[in-house]
Amino acid sequence: MNPIVIAEALNKTVKIRAVKTTELVETARVKHDLFPTSAAALGRVMSVAAIMASEWKDAHAKTIIEMNGGGPCGSIIVHAKGNGEIKGLIGDPHVYLFNETTGKLDVGKAVGNNGYLKVMKDLGLKEPFSGIVDIQSGEIGDDFSYYFAISEQTPSVVSVGVLVNPDYSILAAGGLIIQLLPDAPEDSIAYVENLVKTMKSMSTYINEGKTPDEIIQLLFPDANILDQKEVYWHCDCSKEHFKDALALIDRNDIISLMEEDHEAEITCQYCNERYHFDENDLIEVLEKKDAMESRKR
After folding, report:
1. N or C: which end of the chain has fewer CB atoms below 10 A?
2. How far apart are CA 39 and CA 52, in angstroms?
């Protein structure tokens, strides 16, 4: 179970959203054969994406995050829907960097700090909202705090973490976003500032066995739980989807696949599911392409 808990506190001046993503990140690890630092980087972004998408009432509304800091792990892309579905990928799944000084996985070095963080909110309208900022540290939590402050003008604390077992499986993962609401008084601001100095990492709380609602109540004793939602791994790829994609390539290329290879295979980059197309499938693709082009004329 991967519950997202949404709450308010300090006389409705602070909004808190917390999520446990241990099972979600473990699924991603298995799907992509992730090494520890790649798992930590992708898992942190997935945790934030899940929380951000929880604001959507429309099940099909999407939050899409793309992050590339120029580091060895490459691009991180995550799609999260209002119904809790989430999928993601990372450029290099086999990054294992360890910081001897901190004794932790070196996510900042793996992501890099010379690049961008882009967030797109697709509500099914003509023009989705899109915000982009420069990556500050590559540590992801700090970068999203910066994104919320600059792109959405919302002072925010973002805590995300992933702990990995020696066998590379995910021990604990989760995320927490604390946001000061407009016109929050000085005492609320001071409370949050002091809290940041003393609270543990989200993955530590999860590893201690605490649930998201227990973590929120621990940090904000007056918290009022408003809602809970589930988040889970789901890739919406299908053979029909990739048939449509094949129909978009050049007609001669489709004919070449039919005459020379007599088949084609496509692997989904999000879940690594493989789809095989035999000669009959390719004939259907060609017929689909011809039908599409005839409608344009």
Report:
1. C
2. 20
